[in-house]
Write a structure and sequence with these properties.
8 strands, globular, about 45% strand, eight-stranded antiparallel β-sheet, mainly beta, about 110 residues
């Protein structure tokens, strides 16, 4: 039986849990260990999850600190905050938005 050759390689980025999201009223609060907490309106998260647009992430005093967007595959919710990249699973985000779970993990993307 002849061997086969590798025609392409996929790189992966290791993920490390660095925080969590919680819903507080009409806001989604992003808690990042050692960095701080950041705010996005719940309706804005829904818009991103549906793939309608990217949204601005703010700090507690309403300053813009980053952007939230849907990953190319549609399975990850990306967050660029203060120059660092973070991600959460869209499936889990939906469960929290539906009230089936209370929080979801935020992972830091390291290269």
């Amino acid at each position: 039986m002849p061997g086969f050759g590798v025609t392409s390689e996929r790189s992966s980025h290791p993920l490390e849990k660095v925080g969590r999201f919680r819903i507080e009223g009409e806001l989604v609060v992003i808690y990042l260990e050692g960095v701080g907490s950041f705010l996005v309106k719940k309706v804005q998260v829904v818009s991103v999850v549906l793939g309608l647009c990217d949204e601005i992430i703010r700090d507690r005093v309403e300053g813009e600190v980053g952007v939230m967007s849907l990953s190319d595959s549609g399975r990850g919710l990306r967050k660029g905050i203060l120059g660092e990249q973070y991600v959460g699973l869209v499936q889990r985000v939906k469960r929290v938005l539906e009230g089936k779970e209370g929080k979801w993990a935020v992972f830091g993307v390291t290269e």
